[in-house]
Amino acid sequence: MTNGQRGKRGRGLPQTAAELASRMMTAVFSPAATEEEAKAFLHRFADYPRIDAIFVDQPWVAMAKEFLDPLGIAVGVEAAYPVGNTSTEAKVAAIKEGIRLGAVEIDIGGHFSAIVSGDYVTVEVDTKAMVEAAGDEIRLMVLPETAILTNDEKLRTLEVYAEAGVTGIKTSSGYGWNTQIEDVLLVRRVFADAFQIDVSGGVRTLDHALAYFDAGTDKIHASPIFKVLEEAKERLS
Amino acid sequence: MNAFTLQQVSPELARAIEYTDLRKDITYGDVERLCLKARSIGCACVVVPSILVPLAAQYVSGASVGVGTLIAYPFGTQATNVKAKEVEVAVSQGATEIEAIPHYGTLRAGQWSEVEAELSAIRDAAGGSILKLVLETSYLTADQLRFACAIASDLGFTYVVNTTGFRVVSTRPETAGQADPQIVQQLLEASSGRFRVKAAGGIENPAAAQALLDAGATRIAIEAGNRSF
After folding, report:
1. Domain annotation covers residue B229
2. Which residues from chain B sit within 8 angstroms of residue A59, using beta carbons?
3. What's the Rg (C-alpha) of chain B?
4. A33, A94, A116: residue with CB nearest B78
5. pLDDT digits 0-9 by tens, B120-147
6. Cα(A230)–Cα(A233) distance, rounded to whole angstroms?
7. Model confidence, pTM
8. Is position B90 within any domain?
């Protein structure tokens, strides 16, 4: 199984456990964990191959960087996540704060209400403001939330995103809004390599992860991250 | 299946209702319906995501229905200045009630001066709007509730809310907060009577709402649509 098989785009299937890990992400947020639990969670990554990024609360970025910078793992933050519909001004402020804190990536919800109301002019205004705030100082991944959109809404939204300068999307946010493999295939079929495609939600095992990678996914966000990494260690070289 | 028909609501209950729609796929039409229904029965306010505050303000204009929004919904994970910006913009666009979600990590670590600094910045940005503190009650100890309430109350917050109603753990829908009379009492005790209590989360019918009022809550979040995540 290699890159580009059956005409698919993206990076193809990871060949080794280390390569797979380098395309995995996870998160720890404060309502579900105390700071001590968060630290303990971050510490565990010293015993695994390097993953791409871990997302934390903005007030925890400095603490997370202390643990993760030496491991080469990026610290990410989120905004308007996972529900979205946060004011554009607040999202712009969150992006600027993410840059100031030294976060490598920000995952941020699009204007879902405008999308499902058919107001693509407002989607464009909201998106352009985010792209401009991010510049090239932070990796901006926008979430169209494909899990709750029709195919028409998905494609129109992504056309607006591409036009506005978005280069990376996270298809869905998890929390029950899980990315379908069909969504990855659809985006790759229509937009080829215009977007980096990350997915979130519903990846519970190595087999799930491999299926999403095979469909053209670049990176995967998984909460059962250790299970996926353990399985990869056993089954990949 | 929404057992809550607003037509059946007593005037007393209606005045306590915060008619709420925080769904991700809320349409502009949903906001219009929410506001018209809130006006027709005389709810205390509508509650919408911050990006829809201007629309809601337009639809309730001229009625005695407030516009509420949640800041850093649902997890409160943003930095203080980001929250202050969201407050400032919402108020300038017509929000009259601000529900602040604190950084729980700071609160649970007992970093009270930082909690105070955050809530103070939110208060300063709110320009006299009604301020509510949202606490994920079931994730906090009695002491944490008590300290957080005391700090917020001193800063001019007037309501404490028991939950955002959104699931706390990504894979577990059952971690979404639920209102119940016992939690209302717990919050009244934690705030030594200095706070009014807003009950939120899964309030499905008028009887449940009335039980929360009887327990001492003065605001009740009723979710429009009631679609489950």
Report:
1. no
2. 77, 79, 103, 105-106
3. 16
4. A94
5. 999 999 999 999 999 999 999 999 999 9
6. 5
7. 0.94
8. yes
Inspect the interface and report whether the beta carbons of B49 and A113 lie closer than 8 Å. yes
A19: enclosing H helix or E strand? helix A17-21
Measured between beta carbons, which residues in chain A are less than 8 angstroms from residue B135? none
Whether the CB of B50 is below 8 Å from some CB of chain A: the reply is yes
Looking at the structure of chain B, the number of domains it has is 1
- Residue B142's domain comprises 6-223
Residue B160 lies in a domain: yes
Out of B85, B86, B169, the one facing A32 most closely (by C-beta) is B169
ipTM confidence: 0.94
CATH number for B142 = 3.20.20.70
Judging contacts by C-beta atoms under 8 Å, the chain A residues touching residue B172 are none
Beta strands, E only, B142-185:
159-161
Asked if B174 reaches chain A (Cβ–Cβ under 8 Å), the answer is: no
Using alpha carbons only, what angle is made at residue A187 by residues A184 and A189, rounded to the nearest 5 degrees?
105
Task: Report if residue B126 sits inside a domain.
Answer: yes
